[in-house]
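Researcher: Excuse me, tokens okay?
***
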Amino acid sequence: MKKSKQQGFSLLEVLVAFSIFALSIGIIFQIYSTGTRSTALSDEYARAMIIARAKLTRAGIEQNNVLKEQSGIEQEKFEWVVTINEIDDDEDYLETRYQLVKHNVEVEVHWKSMSKNRSVKLNTIKLLPVS
């Protein structure tokens, strides 16, 4: 008499295959969610940088007199603060028809994302008219 060959998979083989499949799916979902979070965070940082650069560019130009500090909210999420301080400089090496003074301009944008406070900060030195 011949022994019959096994047909199909044993319970142990099915359980091992299912465990490997479940582990693989879990890893794939984790990679996907991490990528999605990173993409969202990158988008927020890009928006904050655009806001900061726009405020830095406009600082001291839109107002007739140079304000020390301005603040506001953009897109109902990003809080920004522009600070303009005159730089005390004894060197008067710039000769023009206009009276210009060096100012330190700083822009900071804050927002809350993924239960954390985030911010970007830009600063520059600008020659602005004497107020």
Q: What stands out?
A: Residues 11-129 form one domain.
